[in-house]
Structure formats: C-alpha cells, structure tokens
Design goal:
Elements (H helix, E strand, L loop, with lengths): L1 H4 L8 E6 L4 E4 L2 E3 L6 H12 L3 E6 L11 E4 L3 H11 L4 E4 L6 E3 L19 E3 L3 H6 L8 E8 L3 H12 L3 E6 L11 E2 L1 E5 L2 E4 L3 E2 H18 L3
Parallel strand pairs: 1-4, 1-6, 4-5, 6-9, 9-10
Antiparallel strand pairs: 2-3, 7-8, 10-12, 11-14, 12-13
The protein binds cytidine-5'-triphosphate and calcium ion.
Amino acid sequence: IAERLASGPLRGKRIIVTSGPTHEPIDPVRYIANRSSGAQGAAVARALSALGAEVVFITGPATVSPPDGVEVVPVQTAREMQAAVDAALPADAGVFAAAVADWRVASASDRKLKKTKDGLPALEFAENPDILREVARRTKNRPALVVGFAAETNDVVEYATAKRSRKGCDWIVANDVSPETGIMGGRENAVVLITENGAEHWPRMPKEQVAARLAEAISQSLSTSEP
Ligand code: CTP
Ligand code: CA
C-alpha cells in the first residue's frame, strides 16, 4: 500500500466513499434493507485507491467484498454510517454511493417480536438522516468535492439535477434504473454526470470503467481546485 500511496495523481488526498445498503433493525433478528450489492461503490473505492488516494470505505452489509488497500469501516444502519462519515472527516472529497435506507423503524424492539392472537405487529417509521445532504451543507469540514449518486427512472436528468441542488452537492452520478434498461443488479452502468455545467452522458460500460472514469474526473477536479 505504501508503495502505491507514494505515486499517482491522488497521492496525499483523503477520500471518503460510502457504499452498499443499510440494514434497519425491526427486532434482534429482522431488518429492512434494499437490493444494493455495493458493486459500484467498491469499484469507485478501488479506482480512487489505484490513483493513489487514501480511501476510507464506509460500507453497509454489501454482497461484494471491499477492495484491498482501503480503510474499511463496516456499518449496519444509516445512523451508524453517518457517525462513521463524521468521524472520517476532514477529507478532500466524499463519494456517496451507498443506498441508504430512507426510513428506519421508529422504535425497534430489543426482543424478538412474537406472533400473537391479538393481531399483526404495526411498524412505525422514522426518517433517516440524509448523510450526503448533511455533509454537502456543512460550513466546517466540507470536502472540496462532494459527489452523490442517484438511481432514477423516467426523467433522469431532470430529477438528478433537482436532487443536486436540493442536496447541495457538487456532482450527481445519475443512472436510469427502469426495468427495461437492465441496469439494476447488473455488471454494467450507463450514467449521466450532473455538474454545475450541466449533464454529461457517458456510454454504457462495465461498472469498473464507470469507476475509473469517475476517479479520473475527481482527480482532475481536485488538482484544479488546489490552492
Ligand atoms: N443519501 C444519503 N443519505 C440518505 C439518503 C441518500 O447519503 N439518507 C445519498 C445517497 O448515498 C446518494 C444520494 O444521497 O448519493 C441520493 O440518494 P437518493 O436515494 O437518490 O436520494 P433521496 O433524497 O433519498 O431521494 P429519493 O426519494 O429519490 O430516494
Ligand atoms: Ca432514497
């Protein structure tokens, strides 16, 4: 690792990457989750590390393994992920590829829920913190470059552009996850990079190549924003 950190355009840059789903407990044995594999986030972390960055990889329970050569911080819930991100700051850039659960169960039971004759359990939800938005709108310790992801259907560019302003991040990496694209859960991705200059459509390519191209763009951006 030391050898790799010693070279590459991102040497000396510290970058936080969030990845994977989060698991929100219902009780000690049950949880609410989503289908994120963590593949795109792991690929981005690997690509940034390959360019020499010091990567803090904060990951929910993903199906793919984290890359070698990065600092791995495993978490379960959105709130744990947020605490891990806060603890990892300051950083030069943050890439928020995690599929964070929007809601958690408001009062998760510390005992396993049992079937009863009195009816069905009712789950009440609470909204999770928006980790990306929180970091992007920080006045202290805001990374120079904050990158979010957005999986959308239909008007992808319009939704992602609105999401960029709402969150206050610099870039949004958007993709169309309509069933007919076959993107969701696949090996390839077709993304649109939304920046202050508008929308840049990238051709469909393997997730590793999307990651490599994004890492290059991040490297460019951090070198031009240098004091
Ligand atoms: N994100 C986050 N914390 C959350 C929700 C989302 O950090 N609680 C980040 C994701 O990692 C991603 C970006 O915000 O980089 C966009 O996530 P998305 O789910 O598309 O945004 P939401 O604001 O949750 O909007 P939607 O209602 O479309 O799910
Ligand atoms: Ca969401």
